[in-house]
Amino acid sequence: MEDIFQIISKIEDHETKRYLSTIIHVEGSAYRKEGAALLIEEAGTLTGVLSAGCLEQDLVERVKGMGNKNESISICYDMRSVDDLNWGQGAGCNGVLYVLLEPITERFKCDLFNLKSQLDQGIPVTVIKKLTNSLKASDYLFISKQGDIFGSWNDRIPVDFIHSSQLMKPSGLYYSEELASLVYIHCYSPKPRLFIFGAGDDVKPLHMFASKTGFSVIISDWREGLCTISNFPYAESLLYGNPSQIIDDINFRPQDSVVVMTHQFEKDKEILELLKTKRNIVYFGVLGSRLRTRRLLNHVDIPEWISTPVGLDIGAEGPEEIAISILAEIIQTLRKNKNHRVESSWKEKE
Q1: pTM of the model
Q2: Per-residue b/e over 149-162, b at no fewer than 16 CB within 10 Å?
Q3: Nearest to 252 by CA among 271, 277, 280, 272
């Protein structure tokens, strides 16, 4: 999921000098792809991951050498060699990575807070960074799907930027003919929400794994003794009450996922009936066998949009393994859905 949420939470609480490292281009294979981000604090504290430990220490040393400069730099890491002749690590990952290292100025910090505000409202935001010949970022612009524009941009805003912000593009380098320069583009997606109906013991590992993976977890149950903060400390919110009271008040978003696992037949049946019209969600899973789910649906054929038995078929046993299979299927569905919506109208630099 997006690294930016964890990064912004860190810059809210600290006043030390900080730098944002972003993978802007990958050739060949790499541990992470374009858009992956890492926060580096002046003392060397890291938030996020760019590699399996190959790049981070070198980036920390570069930050120490930047002093009070407020200019960005771009670093190329060639990890195709298995020896130490390139940049001293000998990772042998068969990939070349370009990393943009930017100081977080007060202006940039304010714009990142504005970005988070948009994302918290469920609004995707595209960032466009104008690059020099040495791949330094000279200007940056955030454009929300609602058309809000903010950032530090000293040139005219090309028309194609406004149009491209409405599309979920692959992260990376593109060539803008209007600017006659390379630009880096990344579309930040709102944090995906996972609604879990049911508060049994098997929900505990699922809610924890999902939260640590970057989901905003919301748990709903009518049993007051089960739907508690002590049982679900990683949940963003708990919705206590009967399904009919809860579901009508939820404004589902296209990237939301729902899992039904109350273990009570009549409640599951009620939830399915209430959710049949909420088809704008990306994933809908029901715990239990297909035979049980058909009974929940009054013996009609199970629609394709319902995943049952919930989760990938990995032969999972026990709450933890089942939670992993469910989360893996949700992530797979989110990735496929995002890739399906990708449109590439930009002219990529060859």
Answers
A1: 0.84
A2: ebbebeeebbebbe
A3: 280
73: which strand partners? Answer: 101
Cis peptide before 309 (omega within 30 of 0): yes
d(CA 147, CA 297): 42
Parts of the chain with a pLDDT under 70: 13-15, 81-93, 163-168, 279, 338-350
Report how far apart the first and last C-alpha atoms of the chain are (Å, whole number). Answer: 28
Tell me the H-state helices in the chain: 4-13, 56-66, 106-120, 159-164, 203-213, 243-247, 265-275, 290-296, 318-341
pLDDT tens digits, residue range 24-69?
999 988 889 999 999 998 778 899 989 877 788 899 989 888 877 7
147: DSSP letter? -
Residue 48 φ/ψ region, left for φ over 0, alpha for ψ in the -120 to 50 degree band, beta for the rest: left
Residues making up the chain, counted from first to last: 350
Helix (H, G, I), strand (E, B) or coil at 86: coil
**From CA 322, how far away is CA 314, in angstroms rounded?**
9
d(CA 332, CA 119): 22
Three-class secondary structure of residue 327 per DSSP: helix
Label the pairing between strands 306-307 and 18-28.
unpaired
Residues whose CB falls within 8 Å of the CB of residue 334, separated by 6 or more in sequence, listed in order: 192, 255, 257, 282, 283
Among 166, 196, 186, smallest CA distance to 323 is for 196
Residue 128 token pair: 């466009």
Contact of 130 with 158, CB cutoff 8 Å: no
Which residues partner with 144 through β-bridges?
125
